[in-house]
Write a structure and sequence with these properties.
With 161 residues, the protein is of the alpha+beta class. The chain is 60% helix and 17% strand. The chain has a four-stranded antiparallel beta sheet. α1 (6-32) packs across α2, α2 packs parallel to α6 and α5 (103-110) runs antiparallel to α6 (114-136). The termini are far apart.
């Protein structure tokens, strides 16, 4: 057995996770077409964020649901390779995150699928982040104010009551 460092284990698992996400989408697309693959991907992303949010929510100590969401979501994004450029908080009413690196967009560009990235982002980013918001506070809404997959320099995610 190969003795791996924690960093090597983390890299192995991360690359496996991101690869399987794209690979199964492309195989579905080959067999059933893009629209069906995107519908199934969306169904998966309606469930996975709930699991992720609940795992991190159990670990966070925060004074409010909004603060807990901020802490958990920024942790998830760091773990997955997003880069947080900036943020704005609106007290207990919400916050905005500016992201200037999205690993999922990067993978789509690298694999020559930039032309479909906006459609994927329209669907999946909204599903993922709306699901995260709902796990912490049913009154929080999510809006994508701008996105890299639509040509912006960075993404802005807004969570507000």
């Amino acid at each position: 057995m190969i003795k791996l460092t924690d960093k090597q284990i983390t890299e192995y698992l991360y690359r496996s996770y991101t690869t399987v996400d794209g690979l199964w989408f492309m195989k579905l697309e080959e067999k059933y077409g893009f629209d069906t693959a995107l519908d199934i991907d969306d169904a998966v992303w309606k469930v996975l964020p709930k699991i992720q949010a609940r795992i991190l929510k159990a670990l966070v100590k925060a004074d409010s649901p909004v603060e807990a969401l901020f802490e958990c979501l920024t942790t998830r994004q760091a773990l997955e390779g997003f880069h947080l450029k900036d943020w704005k908080k609106y007290g207990n009413d919400g916050f905005e995150l500016s992201i200037d690196r999205c690993p999922f967009f990067d993978i789509q560009v690298k694999s020559g699928r930039k032309k479909v990235s906006a459609r994927v982002g329209d669907t999946i980013c909204n599903t993922v982040h709306s699901t995260w918001a709902a796990e912490f506070d049913s009154k929080l809404t999510f809006k994508l104010l701008q996105r890299m997959c639509r040509g912006a320099e960075f993404c802005i995610f807004q969570f507000r009551r």
